[in-house]
Write a structure and sequence with these properties.
- Chain B: It comes from Aliibacillus thermotolerans.
- The complex is a heterodimer.
- Chain A starts with 8 loop residues before the first helix and ends with a strand.
- In chain A, helix 10 crosses helix 11.
- In chain A, 50% of the residues lie in helices and 16% in strands.
- By secondary structure, chain A is an alpha/beta fold.
- In chain A, helix 9 links the parallel strand 5 and strand 6 (212-216).
- In chain A, strands 1, 2, 3, 4, 5, 6, 7 and 8 form an 8-stranded mixed sheet that branches.
- Chain B has helices spanning 2-7, 42-47, 63-70, 94-105, 139-155, 173-192, 207-210, 233-240, 251-256, 266-279; strands spanning 30-32, 39-41, 77-79, 83-85, 111-118, 121-128, 159-165, 197-206, 219-222, 228-229, 262-263.
- In chain B, strands 3, 5, 6, 7, 8, 9, 10 and 11 form an 8-stranded mixed sheet that branches. In chain B, strands 1-2 form a two-stranded antiparallel sheet.
- In chain B, strand 1 and strand 2 form a beta hairpin.
- In chain B, helix 5 (139-155) packs parallel to helix 6.
- The chains are: A alpha/beta, B alpha/beta.
- The interface between A and B is large, with 53 and 63 residues.
Chain lengths: 318, 292
């Protein structure tokens, strides 16, 4: 069974033991309900111990888990009439970013997000959720369209990073990301960005210049992957676990640093345990954000976005 | 990985460990071209704006050397010289490294910003210095550049920025990444104000700096053979498992792929900038205009 992460092993073993005991009791017609009850109590305690105190590295594992819900999963649960729109009108359509128009509680919105695959075949098609410049240019095209028709933009962030490839460099990966940053800063409609999985560096930020930046509790957002940081710092990628702590990449850490507005609570054990319930938890925060932002004028939105980034990080004078 | 970008073209004669150098290049007196290995008097080389006499290789310039090569000396007024980053993540050895670089470079951070006159035309200028933490961008670098852009808007002056950077500064984590958004947002304001921004990429301009302000010029220029790109060469080679062309991610490669307006030789930098400024309607300001 692949539906668990390595740190969940004690839980899985205990659950198996309980199931075994139950079937044994049934088979032999013996009453073991007391033992089972004790074990179930222990299981609840163990769940609390593990899920209640997730370490940064465990959160990284949850964020990267192959079964973690993706942009399209949340779109299905959060929006109505989603119609995907393709292509950057310049070169190609990049399946690593999806986008389109939809209704959110009856109101038109533009939705854009990184899209990972669910299995190997899907991942190859989606390039593991790592966009080329055309992905960012498609995203920008859709944002400009949202601005023209005065509808809010919702971005889901879920990428290891922009694709480090030859073609991506030739077609201006840097320029595509940079342009998105500048244009998002000036967009005259509300932008809400939500990190749902991994937020990898500039490739994530290119969908992240929002009026609000929210993060799912077990998602990460970082300037460099823990492995990359470990390789640079300790010349050894196996120190990734340590780097994950040092780099402060989890939602609670980034909330403390003032980078993130809201940490969106996750279903116990991670969003993959119950996508529908997770979508509801996102829905509450998204609804509130849009409720606040849609009342603001274009110039207020742009001004507040500017001030938001001006306030991040402490400046010291010698 | 990023270190390689710099060590390849370090200014002073560096001695590769595998083969000892025969010629005695006393610290600072002589400089060896990292490209053609010619040994030159450092002072002569500096007069030549650190361009190799023999092979035309552009060796790095310090931020102040660059400013002096473009701005009339008595007109330069520096902004925010004392602005520095904290250590927001309590990152191992970061404070010590900053202190070492401050001492070594006589700079407080990896960018120098200010205003002055280029051939009599008042401009706001920023110059990054690769010697300080490899020119990486943390909160202070992002803030200095943002404030310089805001000054340009306030004074309605053109903004010119010379970048030299390995990218976002790892030791300040996500706060460094957010500087990409902040500087780009400031450039949006500059755009709205209808003001000119010339970006000049020098060796190297990579990662988060390449993917933010450096790519957002009304004109994007670069010095010959400067390394410019988003991802590091080695990472790309590991990802795509194929050899990359030798000129990959050089200024000439970018020009060929439509990513740059021009590759500008250092000896023609000032005159090129002057021409752009003049075509944009900026003219010499004679006499005693009050700066600051």
């Amino acid at each position: 069974m692949s539906n668990h992460l390595s740190f969940e092993k004690p839980l899985v073993e205990l659950r198996e033991k309980i199931a075994e005991l139950k079937s044994f009791a049934k088979e032999k017609g013996i009453d073991l309900s007391e033992e089972i009850q004790t074990l179930e109590g222990r299981l609840a305690q163990l769940e609390e111990d593990i899920y209640g105190n997730l370490h940064p590295w465990q959160r990284v594992q949850i964020a990267r888990f192959s079964e973690r819900p993706t942009t399209l999963d949340y779109i299905e649960h959060l929006f109505n009439d989603f119609l995907e729109m393709h292509g950057d009108r310049l070169f190609a359509d990049d399946p690593a970013i999806v986008g389109g128009i939809a209704l959110y509680k009856g109101n038109p919105v533009t939705v854009i997000g990184h899209q990972r695959g669910k299995d190997t075949k899907d991942n190859i098609y989606r390039n593991f959720g790592m966009p080329h410049p055309e992905g960012y240019r498609k995203a920008l095209r859709l944002m400009k369209q949202a601005e023209k028709f005065s509808r809010p933009v919702i971005c889901f962030i879920d990428t290891k990073g922009a694709y480090p490839g030859k073609a991506a460099e030739e077609r201006g990966q840097s320029e595509a990301i940079a342009r998105n940053l500048r244009e998002m800063a000036g967009l005259k409609v509300p932008i809400v960005s939500i990190v749902i999985g991994e937020g990898g560096s500039g490739g994530a930020l290119a969908l992240g210049v929002g009026n609000y930046i929210h993060m799912l509790e077990n998602s990460t957002y970082s300037v460099i992957s823990p492995e990359g940081a470990a390789a640079l710092l300790w010349k050894d990628a196996s120190y990734a676990k340590q780097a994950a702590e040092t780099m402060q990449i989890t939602a609670p850490d980034l909330k403390k640093l003032g980078v993130v507005d809201t940490v969106i609570e996750e279903v116990r054990g991670g969003a993959h345990k119950d996508v529908k319930k997770q979508a509801m938890l996102i829905d509450q925060v998204l609804e509130e954000s849009l409720h606040t932002l849609t009342r603001k004028s274009a110039s207020e939105l742009v001004k507040e976005r500017y001030e938001k980034y001006k306030e991040i990080g402490e400046i010291i004078t010698l | 990985m990023l270190k390689d970008f710099f060590s390849r073209r370090r200014r002073y004669a560096t001695i590769p460990s595998e083969r000892k150098q025969q010629v005695n290049t006393k610290e600072g007196v002589m400089t060896k071209c990292p490209e053609c290995k010619t040994i030159m008097y450092t002072k002569e080389l500096q007069k030549h704006h650190n361009v190799c006499f023999r092979c035309d290789h552009h060796l790095p310039m310090t931020a102040y050397e660059r400013i002096h090569s473009l701005i009339e000396e008595d007109t330069f007024v520096e902004y925010d010289r004392n602005l520095i980053s904290g250590d927001p993540l309590s990152f191992p050895e970061y404070k010590e490294k900053l202190a070492t670089d401050r001492e070594k470079t006589n700079l407080n951070e990896a960018v120098v910003t200010g205003e002055g006159k280029l051939d009599g035309i008042p401009i706001v200028i920023g110059v990054m210095d690769g010697r300080f933490r490899m020119g990486s961008m943390g909160v202070a670098v992002g803030e200095k550049i943002t404030r310089a852009i805001e000054k340009a808007i306030e004074k309605e002056r053109p903004f010119i920025l010379f970048s030299a950077s390995g990218g976002a500064r790892m030791q300040e984590g996500m706060l460094s990444l957010m500087q990409m958004a902040k500087t780009s947002a400031a450039l949006h304001r500059l755009d709205e104000a209808g003001l000119l921004f010339i970006s000049v990429m020098t060796h190297p301009t990579t990662g988060g700096v390449s993917a933010s302000f450096a790519s957002l010029g009304d004109y994007n220029f670069a010095e010959p053979k400067a390394l410019i790109g988003f991802a590091g060469r080695r990472i790309i080679e590991q990802t795509i498992r194929q050899e990359l062309p030798e000129n990959f991610q050089t200024a000439e490669f970018l020009l060929e792929h439509g990513q740059l307006d021009r590759v500008v030789h250092r000896h023609e930098m000032k005159s090129t900038l002057k021409t752009v400024l003049r075509i944009h309607g900026y003219h010499r300001e004679e006499g005693g205009e009050e700066l600051v």
